[in-house]
Amino acid sequence: MKKKKQLQVWKLILIYIVATGLSLIIFAYFHHVNPIGDFNYVEVSLPTPTLPSTSVPTAIPTYTPPRTDEPALITPTPLPTEPPIFAPDEHRSVMTDEMLITENVRIELLTKTEGDAVFHIAEIWLRDVTYLKTYCAGGQYKGAWANKEYAYRLAREVNAFLAINGDQFAARREGVEVRNGVLCRERMYKDVAVLYYDGSLVTYDQDKFDIGVIEENGAWQAWSFGPRLLDDNGQPMTEFNCEDYVGKRRHPRTAIGMIEPLHYIFVCVDGRSSKSDGILLTDLSKWFYDNGCVSAYNLDGGATSQMVVQGEYYNNPSKEREVTDIIYIGID
To answer: Could you please report the per-residue DSSP string of 124-188?
Structure first.
């Protein structure tokens, strides 16, 4: 009788293990191999503001000026409104493995180790926000479901000098998504980051975002993954709108931050390797603050975390994973 009870217990344990394994396989399949279809697709061209590039629409929260007591991320550089930061004309453009300088774009690249993590950093200045573009696998938002691709291949398709993975929007049905001025999805999913036409990057808590703001004033890009990494006052955060396994463990990360409108930082932090342990969200939040950012937003990470420069990986992905979208700056 005792042996029969033990056999039943082992059967239950075996059933539990098999069921758990199948659940994980199904999750991995629909999250990474064949993401679910988007039944909430819309296609609405948003208004383009006629305001000067230095003005912020009144319905959009203004940004806090960058702190002047913080050291520059790479080297002290004039603000983007001062012509010397860009090439005087197309004949004096510069492109190297670590830098791009054109009439409209300046990008400086740097890789460094801080603590137990390797950071791949791109500091970016733009004359106009429309130089910061997004591109979806298959060439269109709806086409990404069947055409997801490695980030470096998408970057080559659009002749990008610099590209990072986006928010992997195909992994869920929800999420406010704007791609190059077109509203593609409007259902909420956690925190939202909006890049407005004046160049300001504003992040919103899930409960505080109003879709009417971008419908009325327009937006150039919007992403839904998160969480946001700095609060409304540009201060570091210790609590985040995400699951514990995302926020309280070290992972490879991709994130974007704004020092001021038209002046940004892209960063990929390597992880899951002998050379880099990844980073906690609390440490990433403080890192953006320490480097002068007033807003910052976490994008998809883990094996999705990819930075590409001139068509080749600049970071060291933990493994290759196909993505549905990239954020990039082309060679103009």
So the answer is: EEESSGGGSEEEEGGGSTTTHHHH-B-HHHHHHHTTEEEEEE---GGG-S---EEETTEEEE-S-
Distance from C-alpha of 259 to C-alpha of 265, rounded to nearest angstrom = 8
Q: What is the largest CA-CA distance in the chain?
A: 89
Please return the burial class of 128, using the count of CB atoms within 10 Å of its CB with bins 0-12, 13-18 and 19+. Answer: middle
DSSP state of 177: E
Note the pLDDT tens digit of each residue in 50-88: 654 443 333 333 334 445 454 445 444 444 444 458 998
Q: 198: which DSSP letter?
A: T
Which of 100, 108, 102, 106 is closest to 126 using CA atoms? 106
pTM of the model: 0.81
Q: What is the pLDDT of residues 192-227, one digit of tens each?
A: 999 999 999 999 998 899 999 899 889 999 999 999
**Are 288 and 269 a contacting pair, CB within 8 Å?**
no
Question: What is the rounded distance in angstroms from the CA atom of residue 252 to the CA atom of residue 113?
Answer: 14
Count CB atoms within 10 A of the CB of residue 5.
9
Q: Is it true that the peptide bond before 317 is cis, omega within 30 degrees of 0?
A: no
**Angle, CA 227 vertex, CA 200 and CA 225 arms, to 5°:** 85
| Bridge partners (DSSP) listed for residue 298 | 255
Structure-token pair, residue 150 = 């490695």
Residue pair 146/136 in contact by the 8 Å Cβ criterion: no
Rounded Cα–Cα distance for residues 193 and 331 (Å)? 25
Contacts of 226 (CB under 8 A, 6+ apart): 190, 191, 192, 193, 203, 240, 241, 242, 297, 298
Which of 256, 175, 293, 186 is CA-nearest to residue 223? 175
